[in-house]
Amino acid sequence: MTEREPIGVIGVGWVGAVTAACFAELGHEVWARDIVPEKIESLSRGELPIHEPGLSELITGNAERLHFTTDMQEVVDHAQLLFVCVDTPPTYSGDADLSRVEAVIAELGDSDEHALVMKSTVPVGTGRSIQRRREGIGYVSNPEFLKEGSAVADFMNPDRVVVGANGGSEQYADRVEALYTPLGAEVVRTDVASAEMIKLASNAFLATKISFINEIANVSEELGADVREVSRGMGLDDRIGPKFLQAGVGFGGSCFPKDVQALKQLAGNSGYHFQLLTAVVEVNELQKRRTIGKLQKHLGSLAGKEVALLGVAFKPDTDDVREATSLVLAGRLAGEGAHVRAFDPVAGAKAEDMLAGARIVESALDAIDGADAVVLVTEWPEFRELDWTGEVKRRMRVPLVVDGRNFLDREQLVEAGFTYEGIGR
Ligand code: UGA
Questions:
Q1: Cβ of residue 148 lying under 6 Å from some atom of ligand 1
Q2: Mind listing the pLDDT tens digit for each residue in 271-311?
Q3: Which of 139, 180, 287, 360 reaches 20 to 30 Å from 109, CA-CA?
């Protein structure tokens, strides 16, 4: 049992916390380091600063194997494989900001018995550049493919594990690969640059799939087709597959918008104009705004109108509001002079200062009370459970619903006298 390779995790944000907890669950001693003392203190008490199903249980259940610290030395003393999980936010230019990765490298110095295992999403070429500067340090690219809201399950049941290494680092890559053996997933062993590209290309492709179906939805609205039927019919084709074909109010989150932009910039920096990704971004921006037109179609001017936003998080089962469609919608609605009340089961507090002009309220019914329209932005299951035909209808001034995720029961709502606007139907 104690033979298992000890693991270092640098940066205990969302990816770092999931990585640390899951390796501990697999039986490894894990030393996880972050520079924010409050975060380390609360994690050491078993308290999680983020909402991620199942993670809290893993952290408390494996407390004896999980060592949270602010001290880098403690990590390098115990572990040779150092999983780098710091964030790489976009800079003003749209390139990835690698300053936190660079800070880790600077702290590590020229150790020749450690390997950086890069989980942070970095531009293609980052690994090569680090290896050129720090020949002694091992370097393995091991990108993550975790979805917020199901990250623990994604870690434990991966579709594939990607491990990229060059030359002298192959021995470290063998050790990284071995860590995942109990999960039984197919391992893609490759070079560092290809591993880095697999990560960016996967996110860019999924974002493209969403923008594609959103455009099909918009055309379907014009031509009388129902995009849900179209997705079903397309998704049964093995070559296409049913996932990520749900039309909606656009993709958000900390990954797709950032990574699509980063890949586009990366291509541009090397002289290649990635035209498709330019369209993917633009379609998504417009998709986030289309709701305004749907509201105006029924309400005319939105000045002084009461609009309820159900859901603020960029997707269900997370409290993350980064790049969420709710932010764009709140801003646009405020611009049109509407009064916005928003409710989210977990992300409300985080969104307090970010939702331009909107008031965050305590319950869905508080948001709906006296509303001229309800916009469903995030498909939290509890929104489906609301008493739409009774309490909700009674409380609304105008029974207008824009279902931004095609999530509610259209037939039931229409029968009860609602005006229903979905996406692409
Ligand atoms: C995404 C990828 O799915 C992960 O594989 C990747 O590891 C992660 O980014 C990352 O790079 O860290 P995430 O952003 O957590 O994961 O969430 P997704 O489930 O991919 O959803 C992203 C956005 O797309 C959400 O706003 C969601 O509502 C939207 N979406 C998703 C759609 O509009 N339609 C769909 O069919 C699927």
A1: yes
A2: 999 999 999 999 999 999 999 999 999 999 999 999 999 99
A3: 180
Q: Which of 28, 21, 38 is nearest to 80 (CA)?
A: 28
315 lines ligand 1 (CB under 6 A): yes
Strand 186-190 and strand 306-310: the pairing is: unpaired
Distance 310 CA to ligand 1 centre (A): 19
CB count in 10 Å sphere of residue 304: 10
Instruction: Name the token pair of 5.
Output: 């390779």
Q: Is pTM beyond 0.70 here?
A: yes
* Distance of alpha carbon 290 from alpha carbon 85, whole angstroms: 36
Q: Please write the tens of the pLDDT for every residue from 127-149.
A: 999 999 888 899 999 999 999 99
| Element housing 415 (H / E) | helix 410-415
Q: Which ligand 1 atom is the nearest neighbour of the CA of 148?
A: 15
Q: Is 257 in the pocket of ligand 1 (CB under 6 A)?
A: no
What residues act catalytically?
255
- Report the alpha-carbon distance of residue 333 to residue 203 in Å, rounded: 30
Residue type, 378: T
Whether residue 175 has its Cβ less than 6 Å from ligand 1: no
Taking the alpha carbons at both ends of the chain, their separation in whole angstroms is 56
